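Same chain as my last thread, 188 residues:
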Amino acid sequence: MTMKRFFVLFLVLCVAVFAVPALEAGIPEDELTAGFVYVGPIGDGGWTYMHDKGRLEMLEAFPGMDTMFVESVPEGPDCVRVMETFIRNGAQLIFATSFGYMDFVIDVAKKYPDVTFMHCSGYKRTDNVGTYFGRMYQARYLSGLVAGKATKSGVIGFVAANPIPEVIRGINAFTLGVRKVNPEARIK
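reply #2:
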């Protein structure tokens, strides 16, 4: 299974896990609306694109469900406006798809306790805020095993986008993989 396919299936599973309680709480499937706050454009071919594929798969899995989304929302106070607009338009489930939305999601969730929020890659949770993210550290560990075996110089570089929890977790897993097969190697 490719990583892209895994991510789509993971998002559908997330929706299933968190949409079912909403359905059990008395929201009929054909009245359940989810909003997606996207950090980039759907056409980015990467992060936002895969979230949107998950949204489309969710619509197939739950035919009566409705969704809405806004693309290219900066990681800042503007995401609050987008989430509150979703809520005013009937969203009971909101996916905030970037780490930088975390504190804003927590603040909005306090104001709307009857709405379920799912935050991608964050670590803060409340009664109505959950988090989701794939187990990327497992693949990082495996790539560390390969890099540790392949290095000729004993020095390996790791490109880290931002010092956020999943990136640090990935670096740590990669390093453990390298050190398992090459204890003398250095990771920069």
